[in-house]
């Protein structure tokens, strides 16, 4: 347990993440920050009132300012607008870049040693905006998307072959967009290559569904996007850091030569521990996977040039 974790943005993803952090007792205190007056205070108080029933001692509070969050070890940043049907994540770029820039400056001001877990979309570019605005090193700005994309891929596979989700090991790399790269060569069920358990046609359909998993939820919800699985993804990353677990998770990291690429955030296998991003693991890729990762990088670089 650490002293304080702050969640910026008390909307769907942020409020759910705060509740999950509290229920897991990852910090003594959780601070929810939002610009909407009364919302973080009301949601924070409501969550704290669930503490005696759920049995956690993490104190949850809400605020419209950053002072109360000073000294937080981790900030989960979910501030910004979410897409609606017919929109792409990149349509959120200009609005969310302005929001994330201001959020990151405030974080750096009150908690210069914090680790930022970015969630706001378009994810890979928002990580870049946060790193620039905070001045933090790459070890302390990490994006959540790969855990979610992999969670979708794993859940669809578990359903298709009727096994426990816990026994599916997989990794989805690349940018958080339609060009994400599920690594079939590293997908196993308790060590058994996935290709031995499902035919190519069904596997291709699952890969495609995982790639479009965000849009599938938007189509159902209509007024916004997914938040239960996204908040789980962000909190799994926070837990790996708080407990210094050295977990290997697919996260957006600032590449400096890894995978032959430089100066962009992209989803790659990352070791997370108390220092944040502790290592980027470079796995061998097939020529097809390399080409797909390159294409995914191009899809990140294009909007990145606009901020
Ligand atoms: N990386 C991922 O995999 C992933 C998954 C789900 C959602 N998202 C993204 O996360 C973001 C939030 O999604 P949501 O569903 O929670 O949206 P939401 O609309 O429910 O909540 C967003 C909150 O941000 C707040 N906000 C706006 N400007 C702010 C500012 N300057 N400072 C503090 N708070 C501010 C709003 O008041 C609102 O409460 C979106 O950009 C969405 O696309 C990313
Ligand atoms: O799809 C979205 O806009 C939200 C998020 O990125 C997701 O994948 O659920």
Automatic annotation (TrEMBL):
<protein>
    <recommendedName>
        <fullName>Malate dehydrogenase</fullName>
        <ecNumber>1.1.1.37</ecNumber>
    </recommendedName>
</protein>
<feature type="binding site">
    <location>
        <position position="89"/>
    </location>
    <ligand>
        <name>substrate</name>
    </ligand>
</feature>
<dbReference type="InterPro" id="IPR036291">
    <property type="entry name" value="NAD(P)-bd_dom_sf"/>
</dbReference>
<feature type="binding site">
    <location>
        <begin position="9"/>
        <end position="14"/>
    </location>
    <ligand>
        <name>NAD(+)</name>
    </ligand>
</feature>
<keyword id="KW-0520">NAD</keyword>
<dbReference type="GO" id="GO:0006099">
    <property type="term" value="P:tricarboxylic acid cycle"/>
</dbReference>
<keyword id="KW-0816">Tricarboxylic acid cycle</keyword>
<dbReference type="GO" id="GO:0030060">
    <property type="term" value="F:L-malate dehydrogenase (NAD+) activity"/>
</dbReference>
<dbReference type="InterPro" id="IPR011275">
    <property type="entry name" value="Malate_DH_type3"/>
</dbReference>
<comment type="similarity">
    <text>Belongs to the LDH/MDH superfamily. MDH type 3 family.</text>
</comment>
<feature type="binding site">
    <location>
        <position position="34"/>
    </location>
    <ligand>
        <name>NAD(+)</name>
    </ligand>
</feature>
<comment type="function">
    <text>Catalyzes the reversible oxidation of malate to oxaloacetate.</text>
</comment>
<feature type="binding site">
    <location>
        <position position="96"/>
    </location>
    <ligand>
        <name>NAD(+)</name>
    </ligand>
</feature>
<feature type="binding site">
    <location>
        <position position="152"/>
    </location>
    <ligand>
        <name>substrate</name>
    </ligand>
</feature>
<dbReference type="GO" id="GO:0004459">
    <property type="term" value="F:L-lactate dehydrogenase (NAD+) activity"/>
</dbReference>
<dbReference type="Pfam" id="PF00056">
    <property type="entry name" value="Ldh_1_N"/>
</dbReference>
<feature type="active site" description="Proton acceptor">
    <location>
        <position position="176"/>
    </location>
</feature>
<feature type="domain" description="Lactate/malate dehydrogenase C-terminal">
    <location>
        <begin position="148"/>
        <end position="300"/>
    </location>
</feature>
<dbReference type="InterPro" id="IPR015955">
    <property type="entry name" value="Lactate_DH/Glyco_Ohase_4_C"/>
</dbReference>
<feature type="binding site">
    <location>
        <begin position="119"/>
        <end position="121"/>
    </location>
    <ligand>
        <name>NAD(+)</name>
    </ligand>
</feature>
<dbReference type="GO" id="GO:0006089">
    <property type="term" value="P:lactate metabolic process"/>
</dbReference>
<feature type="domain" description="Lactate/malate dehydrogenase N-terminal">
    <location>
        <begin position="4"/>
        <end position="143"/>
    </location>
</feature>
<feature type="binding site">
    <location>
        <position position="83"/>
    </location>
    <ligand>
        <name>substrate</name>
    </ligand>
</feature>
<dbReference type="Pfam" id="PF02866">
    <property type="entry name" value="Ldh_1_C"/>
</dbReference>
<keyword id="KW-0560">Oxidoreductase</keyword>
<dbReference type="InterPro" id="IPR001236">
    <property type="entry name" value="Lactate/malate_DH_N"/>
</dbReference>
<dbReference type="InterPro" id="IPR022383">
    <property type="entry name" value="Lactate/malate_DH_C"/>
</dbReference>
<dbReference type="InterPro" id="IPR001557">
    <property type="entry name" value="L-lactate/malate_DH"/>
</dbReference>
<feature type="binding site">
    <location>
        <position position="121"/>
    </location>
    <ligand>
        <name>substrate</name>
    </ligand>
</feature>
């Amino acid at each position: 347990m650490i002293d304080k974790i702050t969640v910026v943005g008390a909307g769907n993803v942020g409020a759910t993440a705060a509740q999950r952090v509290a229920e897991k007792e990852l910090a003594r205190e959780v601070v929810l920050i939002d610009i909407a007056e009364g919302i973080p205070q009301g949601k924070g108080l409501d969550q704290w009132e669930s503490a005696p029933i759920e049995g956690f001692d993490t104190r949850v509070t809400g605020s419209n300012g950053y002072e109360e969050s000073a000294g937080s070890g981790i900030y989960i940043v979910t501030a910004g607008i979410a897409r609606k049907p017919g929109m792409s994540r990149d349509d959120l770029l200009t609005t969310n870049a302005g929001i994330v820039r201001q959020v990151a400056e405030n974080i750096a001001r009150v908690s210069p040693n914090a680790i930022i877990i970015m969630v706001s979309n378009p994810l890979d570019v928002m990580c870049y905006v946060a790193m620039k605005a905070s001045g933090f090193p790459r070890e302390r700005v990490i994006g959540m998307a790969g855990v979610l994309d992999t969670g979708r891929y794993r859940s669809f596979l578990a359903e298709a072959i009727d096994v426990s989700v816990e026994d599916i090991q997989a990794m989805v790399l690349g940018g958080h967009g339609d060009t994400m790269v599920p690594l079939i060569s590293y997908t196993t069920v308790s060590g058994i290559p996935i290709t031995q358990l499902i035919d190519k046609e069904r596997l291709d359909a699952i890969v495609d569904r995982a790639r479009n998993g965000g849009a599938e939820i938007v189509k159902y919800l209509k007024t916004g996007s997914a938040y239960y699985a996204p908040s789980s993804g962000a909190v799994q990353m926070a837990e790996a850091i708080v407990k210094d677990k050295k977990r290997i998770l697919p996260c957006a990291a600032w590449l400096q030569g890894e995978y032959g690429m430089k100066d962009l955030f992209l989803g790659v296998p990352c070791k997370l521990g108390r220092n944040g991003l502790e290592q980027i693991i470079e796995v061998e890729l097939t020529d097809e996977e390399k080409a797909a990762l390159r294409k995914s990088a191009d899809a990140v670089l294009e909007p990145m040039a606009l901020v």
